[in-house]
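Convert to structure. Protein one:
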Amino acid sequence: MFIEQPPQLVRKLYAGALWRLDPKDRAVYLTFDDGPIPEVTPWVLDVLDKYDVKATFFMVGDNVRKHPDMFSLVVERGHRVGNHTFNHIRGFEYSAADYMENAQKTVDIMTRTGSVDNVRLEQAMMPLLFRPPHGHMGWGQYRALKKGYTIVMWDLVTRDYSKKMRPEQVLQNVKHYVRNGSIITFHDSLKSWNNGNLPYALPRALDYLKSEGYAFRLL
């Protein structure tokens, strides 16, 4: 449970970040980390279209650079995009200045990538959202980020990326830990795809959440 649904003590470390939204609202906020990549992201988008669900994609800037068409596709389908640093770096290994520079590279590449019109791009990117890779950042990084970003953590991480998890366990994580206002994290990554967790769990999780009466909202 410590990983899937972080305890209050952990949340207090970054008390100004978003972990969970309105507990009185029967709604969830679906997010995806680590893309975009051509092997996985288009499939995720097709599944979301099938279920009429919008999500927020926290993108790695270098993946946006390598796959600008994937970035454009996410935006054109009406989803939100957020910053996941340019190289998926660990915050504790960088100074605040270097960390912010790396994050800014992602914003720069997003604003000049692809064929999306400016209005749609602004709707997808603003206000600026940031999620730290590996779920941590130094205090200097945290203070600096808060000046320009809404920092988004999670209320439920599915652990679809883990080789130790079976697809059924990933789905069970969603069923067991979801609650009103949950920010749910999947990954449009090769790790979650190649181990079979994402293709199994995502459509079944959407089926379950809809059957339980949850609405899907954008951050």
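Protein two, convert as well:
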Amino acid sequence: MIYCVEDDSNIRELVVYTLESTGMKARGFEDGRVFMEALAFETPELVLLDIMLPGEDGIEILKKLRNNVKTKNIPVIMVTAKGSEYDKVIGLDTGADDYMTKPFGMMELVSRIKAVLRRTTRIKEETTYQVDNLVIDVEKHKVKVDGKSVSLTLKEFELLEKLMKNRYIVLTRDRLLEEIWGYDFTGETRTVDVHVRTLRQKLGSAGELIETVRGVGYRIGGDNEE
């Protein structure tokens, strides 16, 4: 789904029509308020964002997107009548992935969207980690064992994510406590042990990948033989 935030109804409708006629799904929004409300229910693949909008301008909206954990990685193409080098620099420095100046051709817009999606998809793939039959997709917040989804609590997911990102490395209980639970003191390692035990159970056949290093902590994947 592509979101187009544009106050000019003629441009907005033309963009949505063009995208849908080329096989993409698209929705149009006349201002930042209705756009931000829609984000609570759906996360788009990409946002086309005009700078000159009623109420909050596009730059302020972009800042909000980049400062929110849920939306910070959504690709954004700034689409605006402002064409000066300064405006482009501000947009790109704020976190835009590309910049288009009105007027522009619809086919060029489609081409730019596809290029940004290809680029950002490669980045998203780097947030997927796999050890044997266990796969975790951090971006989509999903875990699979043998291709089947596994439901985890938030802390279980964060624990598995930490182990997968540091595979083959032993993580101490104290480090896991501090980085996942925010504890800055020792002596509460049972919290980690309990979560590891339930995590192993939920992962089924992949649970044995989580190795206990006696007296130290845990690691996933065993020794790195690569």
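The mean pLDDT is 87. The longest helix spans residues 106-125.
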